[in-house]
Amino acid sequence: MKLNKPLNVSIAGLEFNSPLILASGILGVSPPTMHILADYGMGGITTKSIGPVKRKGYPNPSIIGLGNDTFLNAVGLANPGIERFSHEITEIKKKEGLVVIVSVFGDNSNDFARTASLAEKAGADAIEINISCPHAEVSSIGVDPKITFEYVRAVKKAIHCPLFVKLTPNVTDIVKIGMSAEKAGADALVAINTVSGLAIDINTHRPILAHGIGGLSGRAIKPIGVRHVFNLSKAVSIPIIGCGGIFNYEDVLEYFLAGASAVQLGSCLYYGYDIITQIRDNLIRYLETRKLDSISQLTGLAHHYKEIGFDD
Ligand SMILES: Cc1cc2nc3c(=O)[nH]c(=O)nc-3n(C[C@H](O)[C@H](O)[C@H](O)COP(=O)(O)O)c2cc1C
Fold this sequence. Notes:
Elements: E1 9-11, E2 14-16, E3 20-22, H1 31-40, E4 44-46, E5 63-67, E6 70-73, H2 82-92, E7 99-104, H3 109-122, E8 126-130, H4 145-158, E9 163-167, H5 174-183, E10 188-191, E11 195-197, E12 214-218, H6 222-235, E13 240-243, H7 249-258, E14 262-265, H8 274-289
Parallel strand pairs: 3-4, 3-14, 4-7, 7-8, 8-9, 9-10, 10-13, 13-14
Antiparallel strand pairs: 1-2, 5-6, 6-12, 11-12
Helix pairs in contact: 1-2, 2-3, 3-4, 4-5, 5-6, 6-7, 7-8
């Protein structure tokens, strides 16, 4: 595969040949699908969140469209369990030039650590911990700096590869959580997971999703993600991977300017895989037009603006 030099990024020592990474839980995790994504321009993939044992998830309806490229889901972390999934990791890893990030979760910090360790043994290049899904039990971890520290520390001790921590926007101050994760040894942060939300059927008078509360994704959440990346990047020195509402190359650039070093694509894949190639090619064109050698030169540039004071 042709390497797109201006789009090469390095995160925690891992070299990505594109800053576009598949977000967790968006597509199935079959190795052929993951391999095709690399051909369309993804530099890395994040697997569905995998737990220590098989989990069925919530009944349908588990995802609904709300219009304007915005979705609400409560899939409930359905997954086959790490023992069965290990083989898939090894298969996905066979694609040259594709960075494989395995998202893990569990019922306690030992579960997280054991699942992460098995995923690494199966071939994961990095582990991402899901402490942020708003409709599952893990949501209680990523809202508390002390608990976040405990979980990050436990996983960090169990693995040798880089550790990414995926943060929730459903907190008063995401910066405190991000700083705590960094202190505990996180190698990068991923911001953001879905925004907690609820949709109600006016005819049945009940929540539409079987689980009730869900996580909002898609176009509507982009400004929330960009804002959180902006604030986090002022406070931490580890790289940040932006996620939430990216549908075109301009969205990617916004995340970079806010402080991201790479991005994850989720809901936009509703439009098919061609969108990945379009975003990639438009990013290259943007950089060429502005005579920039690398997309990394844009990281955090929006921090140089001066806030306009009321008494000026
Ligand atoms: C159907 C669905 C399932 C998801 N499953 C997971 C998951 O298993 N683990 C996780 O960390 N995030 C999960 N997410 C969150 C996404 O990875 C991403 O953070 C979120 O959708 C925001 O990005 P987007 O607006 O580009 O979709 C899921 C999102 C959707 C829509």
